[in-house]
Amino acid sequence: MDKNRLLPTGKWMFLANTIAVVCLTVGFPVIATAADGSIPPTRIRFAVSAGYRVPDSALRATLSAQAEGTDPASLAAQVNRTMSWAVTRVIPTVPGLHWHTDTYMTVRTGVKTAPWRVQESMVVRSNDPSTLLPILGTLQSRLQLEGIDFTPAPGELRKAQNHASAIALQRFRS
């Protein structure tokens, strides 16, 4: 029998080498684990969920101040004065309002007469909509109202999440 006929050649040589590499990369970790006697732990993943409806009881309004012109620094100062008026003079007059700034940007407009735009937005929220609604008129005298939406109150949302978690755990145990 001819010894050369037993050795793989050409594409069969490539296939033989590929099989050897696959066996080493796939088989070696299994052999190494079996050799030291440790068996990897079994992992089981599961998920249980529970839904809970939370009524929308808080009112959230998004407002913005905007200025356009040729000097970005003076535009920024103008926007900052407007926002300062809102957060130091108007919002503190109503107890229970919560606010935070949302976005601030300075952008080129591409318009020759007003090449710059500076804009800042803020979100004002109240768990009692009857306290926020009247003050929105005052804020709109200098700010643009971008939107109003009702959302669940944060405290009520936390309670609902805790309740849903308890229900999910109870379902898992039963």
UniProtKB/TrEMBL annotation:
Transmembrane regions listed in the UniProt entry: 12-35
InterPro entries: SIMPL/DUF541
Domain of life, per lineage: Bacteria
Pfam families according to UniProt: SIMPL
Keywords annotated in UniProt: Membrane, Transmembrane, Transmembrane helix
Transmembrane helix keyword on record: yes
Name this polypeptide is given: DUF541 domain-containing protein
Lineage: Bacteria, Pseudomonadati, Pseudomonadota, Acidithiobacillia, Acidithiobacillales
